[in-house]
Each structure stands twice: as structure tokens, then as C-alpha cells.
Amino acid sequence: MGFDEKKERGETSNQRGNKLKENQIEEKGLDELGEKIGRQMSEVSLNGTDQEEEDDDQGNKLQLGPQFTLKEQLEKDKDDDSLRRWKEQLLGSVDFDSVGETLEPEVKILELSILSPGRPDIVLPIPQDGNPKGPWFTLKEGSRYNLKFSFNVSNNIVSGLKYTNTVWKTGLKVDTTKEMIGTFSPQPEPYTHVMPEETTPSGMFARGSYSARSKFLDDDNKCYLEINYTFDIRKGWATP
């Protein structure tokens, strides 16, 4: 739901060539460590184009290694003290009896809220079909806000969980947001994540109705929740 402008930095051909040489040297030393950490311990670089952001689930999949259960994760590389300690720290106090031998993680988005200074939180009901009827919420023009969500992780580690959101006005794309949330192990208590603060646009042309699509995906581009919705920007907040 962000409206901040994107900024890109250009590089000269010489700079790109030098970086390529440096990366080739570094990759040789990192290959062995990368194989040890495995698919569940990876995170995704999120620097992509607008087209990549729209088509994450259509052909841009990473070629990841085989999946492992949580028990297998701890058994792997158990002679490597640094990796073992890091995995134990990530997994924390996981009850392995409750997660069993499941390969696929499960993420459930429990609640979405909009936080704005000096106002009660706007708690957004999540419909089962992912398509709220009518405007899902109304924001005041020129107002500061944060998006907050809570979620549960079960079965296995979810790697590279991320949030994407694309906004259109009168059929034209006006904003694309992508936020890396992180890698999480299963636990009974929900996790909470607050997005960076943003400000809604203001002025006659900013006011009106918008359509948007939000997704929660992981490294495999498995989508745990997709919401297609509309919202309004008005002169004032909606009255309860």
C-alpha cells in the first residue's frame, strides 16, 4: 500500500565488469558454504524490475535444492559447530514431536491492521476468498501510516517470506511495494511484522478509488495469501 517513489542507480560498463570479476572470485569461496546451508536457510535478493515484481509466480522461480524436515536439518552438518549453533538458534525451542516429518511449511496470515498516529488501529477483516467486497478501507490524504500483520508458521521453516503489493488508479500502475520479512521457524506464538512508515499522496488528483493486489510468498514463490481489493483516499478519515 506504499506510494513512495522508486529510485534506481545506474552503473557504467566498467563498474559492472569489475563487479562481475569480484563476484566470480567470491562465488568460488562461497559455493561450499552455500551447499551446506541448503535451501531452507537461503534468502532472496529483492532488487527486481516492475515486471519481475508482477510475475514472481510466473517463471521467476529460484532453482533450490531438495527440502528437508526439521529433524533432518539438525542432523545435516552436525559436525560443523558454527552451522549447528546457527540452526539451533534459528529453530529455538521447536517441539519436533508436534511438527513431525512434514516437508512443506505452512504460513497463516492472522490479522492485517493499518496504524496511523493519533488514531485507533484499522483492523482489516480477511475474507476467505481473498476478495473483500467494496472498498476495504479509506485513508486520509497526506496521512502517515504503517501496515502491520501477524502470522503463524507451522510444519517447517519458511524461507524468504516476503510481502508484495501493487496499486492501480484508473487502470494505471501507480505503486509497487516489496518487503522481505525473513526466515522463520515453526512456533505456537504468532509473529508480528510492521512495515516502514509511508505517507498517502494528497491533492485533487490523489483523491479517489484505487485497486490493489497483495501477496505473501516464500522463496519457492508459494503464495500463502493473495488479496485483491479496492480502497479510497479522501479528504478525511472514514467515520465509524
UniProtKB/TrEMBL annotation:
Segments of skewed composition (Basic and acidic residues): 1-11, 19-38, 72-81
InterPro entries per record: Ig_E-set, Rho_GDI, RhoGDI_dom_sf
Compartmental location: Cytoplasm
Spans annotated as Disordered: 1-81
One Pfam entry name: Rho_GDI
Keyword Cytoplasm: yes
GO molecular function terms noted in the UniProt entry: Rho GDP-dissociation inhibitor activity
Protein name in the entry: Rho GDP-dissociation inhibitor 1
Source organism of the structure: Morus notabilis
